[in-house]
Amino acid sequence: MFNFLKKIKNNKVKKSKTLAKIEYGVDKPFLIITFILISAGLIIFSSAIIMLIGNAKYDTVRFNQYGLGLIGGLIAMFICYKIPITFYRKYAFYIYLASAVLMILVFIPGLGISHGGARRWVELFGIRFQPAEFYKIGVILYISLWLMKDFGKKLDLRKNFYSRTLPLISILGISSILFLLQPDTDILGVICLSGVILYLLSGGNFKDMFVLGIIGVIALGIIVFSRPYVMKRVQIFLNPSLDPTGAGYQFQQSLIAIGSGGIVGRGYGQSIQKFKYLPEPIGDSIFAVSAEDFGFIGTTFLIILYLVFLMRGFKLAVKSSSYGSLVIVGLLCLIVIQSFVNMSAMMGMLPLSGTPLIFVSQGGTSLLISLMSIGIILSASREKKLGVK
Predict the structure, then answer these.
(1) Distance between the two ends of the chain, CA-based, in angstroms?
(2) How many CA atoms lie within 13 A of 57 on its CB side?
(3) What is the reported pTM?
């Protein structure tokens, strides 16, 4: 991954003295890979949602996923694709500010919705959504705006700190406050990691990166020891047999589902764990459902799809303008890191998290925003200005 990032940075430096404008159409391979990934997600979701047949929530969930998420998302993707990347660059601050205001709305009585001890939802005009999904796009657009100013330049320590490090710390600091108050440590972690990757891509200093790393470790330690549910997740990760009927129940049932799938799986819709045993089978645990249905071969195919999606996206970033490259890599990181965190948690490779599997898990807002991100990526790859940031 970092070899691709280095290639992107070197590509920008070599072209810095070239003044030209090249316009491209939509990248068909990337679009095809995306639609294959979306189709695979819909197949898995349609298998998992069978457990809701006869439930009053069945029609609502289907409408949110297929109506708001898929159809609304495809429309939003097309609109975002048609908007030039120069628009996002010009109004990045205002987009970020609007997304931050939406995040604050979750704390306003009558607008914010609580569920399971968390305030992560807002209901406006009868529509319930998660502002955090919009915030993810806003923060990437704004971080990219700051980091593009000295893209690829080697700066002295003092200038690098004020030009790159301090803005990144400030933006991630504001993000931390907004997410920890909800609380939502999982999405915060994905945003922070994506921001650090963009920092390195822009030419950030590794000495400052060391300082950021220390701050991150201290902050993570404080979160773990101050939030019992996070501590419990870590304990379950370190000792999977701990509390199998309580905090460790989801982890145990996900492993049973994955193991039951074997090599080829039970078959489409034949998962047993989703009916009575596996918590959140259409949400956080949907990867375990897909593993039971389609087995090792099916889950391997899904993982490869995400990797191919990431690699093709990096190729688009190599050819894009400085701002476009940062936006493409940032949005790709949000999608792929979040997805791999979900899959890794279900397989016991990371502590359990509440992050959904992008394009697959239940969540109309998540699918809508993910498709919007694809539209922005395609917009960034459509216009390349060589030598013009």
Answers:
(1) 23
(2) 8
(3) 0.88
